[in-house]
Write a structure and sequence with these properties.
Helices cover 4% and strands 46% of the residues. By secondary structure, it is mainly beta. The protein is globular, with a radius of gyration of 18 Å. Bound molecules: beta-D-mannopyranose. Beta-D-mannopyranose binds next to strand 7. Keywords: Glycosyltransferase, Transferase.
Length: 324
Protein backbone atom coordinates (compact mmCIF):
# COMPACT_ATOMS: atom_id res chain seq x y z
CA UNK A 1 0.00 0.00 0.00
CA UNK A 2 1.23 3.49 -0.82
CA UNK A 3 0.66 6.49 1.46
CA UNK A 4 0.63 9.80 -0.36
CA UNK A 5 2.46 12.11 2.00
CA UNK A 6 5.86 13.55 2.79
CA UNK A 7 8.54 12.02 4.95
CA UNK A 8 8.27 13.36 8.49
CA UNK A 9 10.82 11.55 10.65
CA UNK A 10 10.41 14.06 13.50
CA UNK A 11 6.74 13.44 14.39
CA UNK A 12 6.01 12.44 17.99
CA UNK A 13 6.25 8.69 18.43
CA UNK A 14 6.19 5.98 21.05
CA UNK A 15 6.13 2.25 20.28
CA UNK A 16 3.10 0.14 21.10
CA UNK A 17 3.37 -0.81 24.78
CA UNK A 18 4.38 -4.39 25.66
CA UNK A 19 1.37 -6.65 25.80
CA UNK A 20 -0.93 -4.17 24.04
CA UNK A 21 -2.75 -5.50 21.00
CA UNK A 22 -4.77 -2.39 20.20
CA UNK A 23 -4.35 -0.99 16.71
CA UNK A 24 -4.23 2.57 18.13
CA UNK A 25 -2.54 3.27 21.47
CA UNK A 26 -2.15 6.35 23.66
CA UNK A 27 0.94 8.37 24.45
CA UNK A 28 2.12 7.45 27.95
CA UNK A 29 2.59 11.11 28.89
CA UNK A 30 -0.87 12.32 27.87
CA UNK A 31 -2.25 14.90 27.95
CA UNK A 32 0.38 16.93 26.07
CA UNK A 33 -1.44 20.24 26.50
CA UNK A 34 -2.97 21.19 29.81
CA UNK A 35 -6.07 23.31 30.10
CA UNK A 36 -4.26 26.33 31.53
CA UNK A 37 -1.27 26.30 29.20
CA UNK A 38 -2.18 29.60 27.52
CA UNK A 39 -3.00 33.01 28.93
CA UNK A 40 -6.56 33.24 30.30
CA UNK A 41 -7.43 29.77 29.08
CA UNK A 42 -10.20 27.70 30.59
CA UNK A 43 -9.45 24.77 28.30
CA UNK A 44 -7.41 23.86 25.20
CA UNK A 45 -8.67 20.94 23.14
CA UNK A 46 -9.92 19.88 19.65
CA UNK A 47 -6.92 21.48 17.94
CA UNK A 48 -5.18 21.08 14.58
CA UNK A 49 -1.48 20.83 13.79
CA UNK A 50 0.62 20.67 10.59
CA UNK A 51 4.31 20.34 9.72
CA UNK A 52 5.76 23.85 9.47
CA UNK A 53 9.35 24.88 8.76
CA UNK A 54 11.68 22.75 10.92
CA UNK A 55 8.88 21.84 13.31
CA UNK A 56 5.12 22.21 13.60
CA UNK A 57 2.45 24.90 13.73
CA UNK A 58 -1.08 24.64 14.94
CA UNK A 59 -4.44 26.30 15.30
CA UNK A 60 -5.77 25.67 18.77
CA UNK A 61 -9.22 25.82 20.21
CA UNK A 62 -8.81 27.89 23.35
CA UNK A 63 -11.90 28.66 25.39
CA UNK A 64 -11.06 31.55 27.72
CA UNK A 65 -12.20 32.23 31.26
CA UNK A 66 -15.28 34.03 30.03
CA UNK A 67 -15.90 30.72 28.17
CA UNK A 68 -15.59 32.47 24.81
CA UNK A 69 -14.58 29.95 22.12
CA UNK A 70 -11.81 31.11 19.81
CA UNK A 71 -8.73 30.06 17.82
CA UNK A 72 -5.11 30.78 18.67
CA UNK A 73 -1.95 29.88 16.82
CA UNK A 74 0.87 27.90 18.37
CA UNK A 75 4.29 26.54 17.47
CA UNK A 76 6.34 23.53 18.49
CA UNK A 77 9.70 22.02 17.61
CA UNK A 78 8.77 18.43 18.48
CA UNK A 79 4.97 18.34 18.17
CA UNK A 80 4.61 17.72 21.91
CA UNK A 81 5.70 20.89 23.71
CA UNK A 82 3.64 23.77 22.40
CA UNK A 83 3.83 27.52 22.85
CA UNK A 84 0.34 28.88 22.40
CA UNK A 85 -0.30 32.55 21.76
CA UNK A 86 -1.82 34.86 24.38
CA UNK A 87 -4.57 36.10 22.09
CA UNK A 88 -6.94 34.76 19.42
CA UNK A 89 -5.95 34.90 15.74
CA UNK A 90 -7.22 38.08 14.08
CA UNK A 91 -8.37 37.20 10.60
CA UNK A 92 -8.27 39.82 7.85
CA UNK A 93 -11.66 39.70 6.19
CA UNK A 94 -11.49 38.90 2.51
CA UNK A 95 -15.23 38.83 2.17
CA UNK A 96 -17.39 41.35 0.27
CA UNK A 97 -18.37 42.81 3.60
CA UNK A 98 -17.28 41.74 7.08
CA UNK A 99 -18.79 38.40 8.10
CA UNK A 100 -19.40 38.11 11.82
CA UNK A 101 -17.89 35.32 13.83
CA UNK A 102 -19.66 35.18 17.14
CA UNK A 103 -17.34 32.33 18.03
CA UNK A 104 -14.84 29.99 16.43
CA UNK A 105 -14.07 26.43 17.44
CA UNK A 106 -12.87 22.96 16.39
CA UNK A 107 -10.37 24.02 13.66
CA UNK A 108 -8.88 21.77 10.98
CA UNK A 109 -5.78 22.80 9.01
CA UNK A 110 -4.49 21.45 5.69
CA UNK A 111 -1.86 22.53 3.17
CA UNK A 112 -3.23 22.58 -0.39
CA UNK A 113 -1.06 23.76 -3.26
CA UNK A 114 0.31 27.05 -1.92
CA UNK A 115 -1.23 27.75 1.46
CA UNK A 116 -2.60 26.40 4.72
CA UNK A 117 -6.37 26.29 4.69
CA UNK A 118 -8.24 26.47 7.96
CA UNK A 119 -11.83 25.42 8.49
CA UNK A 120 -13.70 25.71 11.76
CA UNK A 121 -17.12 25.89 13.30
CA UNK A 122 -18.05 29.55 12.91
CA UNK A 123 -20.81 31.31 14.80
CA UNK A 124 -22.94 33.05 12.17
CA UNK A 125 -26.57 32.99 13.30
CA UNK A 126 -25.76 29.54 14.60
CA UNK A 127 -22.88 27.23 13.84
CA UNK A 128 -21.65 26.86 10.28
CA UNK A 129 -18.34 26.20 8.52
CA UNK A 130 -15.89 29.11 8.53
CA UNK A 131 -13.00 29.13 6.04
CA UNK A 132 -9.69 30.98 6.08
CA UNK A 133 -6.09 30.61 5.04
CA UNK A 134 -2.55 31.64 5.81
CA UNK A 135 0.72 31.36 3.94
CA UNK A 136 2.99 31.82 6.91
CA UNK A 137 1.07 31.55 10.20
CA UNK A 138 1.64 35.30 10.60
CA UNK A 139 -1.19 36.80 8.59
CA UNK A 140 -4.55 35.04 8.43
CA UNK A 141 -7.40 35.69 6.01
CA UNK A 142 -11.05 34.76 6.40
CA UNK A 143 -13.25 34.15 3.36
CA UNK A 144 -16.96 33.41 3.06
CA UNK A 145 -18.57 30.69 5.15
CA UNK A 146 -18.80 27.47 3.17
CA UNK A 147 -22.38 26.61 4.09
CA UNK A 148 -25.60 27.92 5.54
CA UNK A 149 -26.10 27.33 9.24
CA UNK A 150 -26.37 24.85 10.85
CA UNK A 151 -23.30 22.82 10.15
CA UNK A 152 -20.21 21.54 11.97
CA UNK A 153 -17.10 19.45 11.37
CA UNK A 154 -16.10 20.90 7.99
CA UNK A 155 -13.01 18.95 6.90
CA UNK A 156 -11.15 19.58 3.63
CA UNK A 157 -9.45 16.88 1.58
CA UNK A 158 -5.72 17.57 1.13
CA UNK A 159 -5.97 18.00 -2.64
CA UNK A 160 -8.52 18.77 -5.32
CA UNK A 161 -10.58 15.78 -6.42
CA UNK A 162 -11.68 15.72 -10.04
CA UNK A 163 -10.48 19.33 -10.30
CA UNK A 164 -12.51 20.63 -7.35
CA UNK A 165 -11.83 21.42 -3.72
CA UNK A 166 -13.62 18.82 -1.62
CA UNK A 167 -15.06 19.02 1.89
CA UNK A 168 -16.84 16.76 4.33
CA UNK A 169 -19.33 18.34 6.70
CA UNK A 170 -22.07 17.49 9.12
CA UNK A 171 -25.36 19.40 8.94
CA UNK A 172 -26.62 19.99 12.47
CA UNK A 173 -28.90 22.16 14.58
CA UNK A 174 -28.28 25.14 16.83
CA UNK A 175 -27.84 23.10 20.01
CA UNK A 176 -26.21 19.89 21.14
CA UNK A 177 -27.43 18.15 18.02
CA UNK A 178 -28.91 14.69 18.71
CA UNK A 179 -28.41 13.53 15.09
CA UNK A 180 -25.83 13.86 12.35
CA UNK A 181 -24.55 12.26 9.15
CA UNK A 182 -21.47 13.07 7.05
CA UNK A 183 -21.88 14.69 3.63
CA UNK A 184 -19.46 15.52 0.80
CA UNK A 185 -19.44 18.80 -1.18
CA UNK A 186 -17.22 20.26 -3.86
CA UNK A 187 -16.18 23.75 -4.91
CA UNK A 188 -14.27 25.31 -7.81
CA UNK A 189 -13.09 28.27 -5.71
CA UNK A 190 -13.48 27.52 -1.94
CA UNK A 191 -16.47 29.88 -1.87
CA UNK A 192 -19.30 28.24 -3.79
CA UNK A 193 -20.03 24.74 -2.56
CA UNK A 194 -22.39 22.24 -4.16
CA UNK A 195 -22.86 18.79 -5.71
CA UNK A 196 -23.61 17.49 -2.20
CA UNK A 197 -23.43 13.76 -1.61
CA UNK A 198 -24.36 11.61 1.36
CA UNK A 199 -21.29 9.77 2.67
CA UNK A 200 -22.41 7.88 5.76
CA UNK A 201 -24.84 8.15 8.61
CA UNK A 202 -25.14 7.57 12.32
CA UNK A 203 -26.06 4.05 13.32
CA UNK A 204 -24.21 1.00 12.09
CA UNK A 205 -22.89 0.00 15.53
CA UNK A 206 -23.74 1.30 19.02
CA UNK A 207 -20.70 3.56 19.69
CA UNK A 208 -21.70 5.64 16.64
CA UNK A 209 -25.46 5.29 16.98
CA UNK A 210 -26.48 8.92 17.65
CA UNK A 211 -24.30 11.01 15.32
CA UNK A 212 -20.96 11.02 13.54
CA UNK A 213 -18.59 13.71 12.23
CA UNK A 214 -15.37 13.82 10.23
CA UNK A 215 -12.21 14.17 12.28
CA UNK A 216 -8.76 14.90 10.83
CA UNK A 217 -8.04 15.69 7.18
CA UNK A 218 -8.31 12.36 5.28
CA UNK A 219 -5.06 10.52 4.52
CA UNK A 220 -4.54 9.46 0.91
CA UNK A 221 -3.47 5.84 0.38
CA UNK A 222 -3.47 3.65 -2.71
CA UNK A 223 -6.42 1.76 -1.14
CA UNK A 224 -8.57 4.85 -0.57
CA UNK A 225 -8.89 7.88 1.71
CA UNK A 226 -8.38 6.91 5.33
CA UNK A 227 -10.81 8.97 7.39
CA UNK A 228 -10.96 9.03 11.16
CA UNK A 229 -14.33 10.13 12.45
CA UNK A 230 -15.98 10.59 15.81
CA UNK A 231 -19.12 8.75 16.75
CA UNK A 232 -21.51 9.46 19.59
CA UNK A 233 -23.60 7.20 21.77
CA UNK A 234 -26.30 8.45 24.12
CA UNK A 235 -25.99 6.89 27.57
CA UNK A 236 -28.02 7.53 30.71
CA UNK A 237 -25.31 10.06 31.61
CA UNK A 238 -25.25 11.90 28.29
CA UNK A 239 -23.17 11.79 25.13
CA UNK A 240 -20.13 9.52 24.81
CA UNK A 241 -17.65 10.46 22.04
CA UNK A 242 -15.40 7.73 20.60
CA UNK A 243 -13.65 7.51 17.27
CA UNK A 244 -13.21 5.00 14.48
CA UNK A 245 -12.11 4.98 10.85
CA UNK A 246 -13.40 4.48 7.33
CA UNK A 247 -11.87 3.99 3.92
CA UNK A 248 -13.41 6.17 1.18
CA UNK A 249 -13.13 5.73 -2.59
CA UNK A 250 -10.32 7.87 -4.03
CA UNK A 251 -12.29 9.42 -6.91
CA UNK A 252 -15.76 9.27 -5.40
CA UNK A 253 -15.12 9.79 -1.68
CA UNK A 254 -18.85 9.57 -0.88
CA UNK A 255 -18.53 5.84 -1.58
CA UNK A 256 -17.50 3.84 1.48
CA UNK A 257 -15.08 0.98 0.92
CA UNK A 258 -15.01 -0.03 4.57
CA UNK A 259 -16.21 1.41 7.85
CA UNK A 260 -15.22 0.38 11.34
CA UNK A 261 -17.71 -1.54 13.43
CA UNK A 262 -15.55 -1.24 16.54
CA UNK A 263 -14.11 2.01 17.79
CA UNK A 264 -10.38 2.67 17.71
CA UNK A 265 -10.42 4.74 20.88
CA UNK A 266 -13.14 5.43 23.43
CA UNK A 267 -13.00 7.60 26.56
CA UNK A 268 -11.37 5.48 29.25
CA UNK A 269 -8.54 7.47 30.78
CA UNK A 270 -9.12 10.04 33.49
CA UNK A 271 -8.30 12.97 31.16
CA UNK A 272 -10.91 11.68 28.70
CA UNK A 273 -13.59 11.05 31.31
CA UNK A 274 -13.14 13.98 33.68
CA UNK A 275 -13.18 17.57 32.49
CA UNK A 276 -15.62 20.18 31.24
CA UNK A 277 -17.45 17.60 29.15
CA UNK A 278 -16.89 14.08 30.47
CA UNK A 279 -16.39 11.08 28.19
CA UNK A 280 -15.08 12.71 25.03
CA UNK A 281 -12.26 11.70 22.69
CA UNK A 282 -12.43 13.98 19.65
CA UNK A 283 -9.80 13.48 16.87
CA UNK A 284 -8.90 16.60 14.92
CA UNK A 285 -5.48 16.22 13.29
CA UNK A 286 -2.96 13.61 12.13
CA UNK A 287 0.70 13.66 11.23
CA UNK A 288 2.00 10.81 9.09
CA UNK A 289 5.57 9.88 8.25
CA UNK A 290 5.48 8.62 4.68
CA UNK A 291 8.64 6.54 5.12
CA UNK A 292 7.58 4.42 8.09
CA UNK A 293 3.79 4.81 7.91
CA UNK A 294 3.81 6.00 11.51
CA UNK A 295 0.80 8.05 12.44
CA UNK A 296 0.08 10.34 15.36
CA UNK A 297 -3.47 11.47 16.08
CA UNK A 298 -4.14 14.70 18.00
CA UNK A 299 -7.39 14.51 19.90
CA UNK A 300 -9.27 16.50 22.50
CA UNK A 301 -9.91 14.89 25.90
CA UNK A 302 -13.10 15.73 27.80
CA UNK A 303 -13.28 19.13 26.03
CA UNK A 304 -10.40 20.20 28.30
CA UNK A 305 -6.96 19.01 27.10
CA UNK A 306 -5.07 17.80 24.01
CA UNK A 307 -3.77 14.21 23.88
CA UNK A 308 -1.94 11.96 21.40
CA UNK A 309 -2.50 8.47 20.07
CA UNK A 310 -0.27 6.45 17.75
CA UNK A 311 -0.67 3.80 15.09
CA UNK A 312 0.52 2.61 11.69
CA UNK A 313 -1.53 3.60 8.65
CA UNK A 314 -1.07 0.14 7.11
CA UNK A 315 -2.20 -1.65 10.27
CA UNK A 316 -5.29 0.53 10.56
CA UNK A 317 -6.26 -0.13 6.95
CA UNK A 318 -5.73 -3.88 7.49
CA UNK A 319 -7.71 -3.75 10.73
CA UNK A 320 -10.61 -2.09 8.89
CA UNK A 321 -10.77 -4.98 6.45
CA UNK A 322 -11.10 -7.56 9.21
CA UNK A 323 -13.14 -5.57 11.74
CA UNK A 324 -16.32 -7.57 11.53
C1 LIG B 1 -19.52 19.09 19.89
C2 LIG B 1 -18.50 20.19 19.74
C3 LIG B 1 -17.14 19.66 20.13
C4 LIG B 1 -17.15 18.99 21.46
C5 LIG B 1 -18.28 17.98 21.54
C6 LIG B 1 -18.41 17.37 22.91
O1 LIG B 1 -20.79 19.56 19.61
O2 LIG B 1 -18.83 21.28 20.59
O3 LIG B 1 -16.27 20.76 20.22
O4 LIG B 1 -15.93 18.30 21.68
O5 LIG B 1 -19.48 18.58 21.19
O6 LIG B 1 -18.80 18.34 23.84
Amino acid sequence: MKIVTQSLPNIPWENRPEGCSDVVWRYSRNPIIQRDQAKDSNSIFNSAVVPFKEGFAGVFRVDDKQRRMNLRRGFSKNGINWKIEDKPIEFIQETREPVESEYKYDPRVVFIEDRYWITWCNGYHGPTIGVGYTFDFETFYQIENAFLPFNRNGVLFPRKINGKYAMLSRPSDNGHTPFGDIFYSESPDMIHWGVHRFVMGAGYTPWQSLKIGAGPVPIETSEGWLLFYHGVLLSCNGYVYSFGAALLDLDKPWKIIKRSKSYLLSPQMLYECVGDVPNVVFPVACLVDGDTGRLVIYYGGADTVVALAFGYVQEIVDWLKYDN
